[in-house]
User: Fold this.
Amino acid sequence: MRLRYCTVDSLENLRRTVPERLDWYYAPQASSLPMSLGGFREASLQAPELANKLALTAKQPSTTDAANALAVYGSLRDLTPHQASIERLWVYLCHFDCPQYVSVRWLTSGLDNDELATREIRNHFFATGNRGVIRDNGISRLWWLGKVAHEVDPDNPEQFLELLLHRQDVRSALIERPSVSMNRRVLRAIYEVMREHWNNGGTLFERKIFRNWMIALNRRGGVILLDALPDAALDRLLRDEAEIAVDQAGGK
Assistant:
């Protein structure tokens, strides 16, 4: 079977009828969606059986994100970044291949508040704009995490994801800011500093210290173009600012 994606009409039908189908999203069975909502086209790529490759721990579902990111990217490695930015692909996968996973992983509000439930569903079963594709959609975010991990640390993508997913603010600072995430050279240099601190106690990863480090890098990046620095100068700047952030925290 080839990889499928929603038609434009089916995508909008699914989005429009979310409030009418809240019960389905909280206990999904792909076969129970009316066919009129599931019009699709087929791409040239072969479709993997993603649902069987995704792990999930009900009590702490986020703990499986790293393994699932590697599984999704490994299964869909042939996607181009352009293809991976198409909402209709991920909406089909979320609704017809992996709805149980997305529901358990992301729908936490319950059905007591229809407005909140609808918002959660539209955030994680759909993918509006680049931010929705990279950050919110239940399956596409895994693909992008896996892609970044393999590009930044191809020899050990697992460790990159371990550090990146250590806390939400770490991921937000590095992946959700295009000025960092889209520049693999700068991201790789930041990761090298992070990895050394991680292996030496992880003080840099304390919430306030990490935030202050990112603020300092943003400030320095507003004065000089980080990507324009030679490798040695970039590395020195990143390390100096990390040391300052750690030292300032220790002095308070």
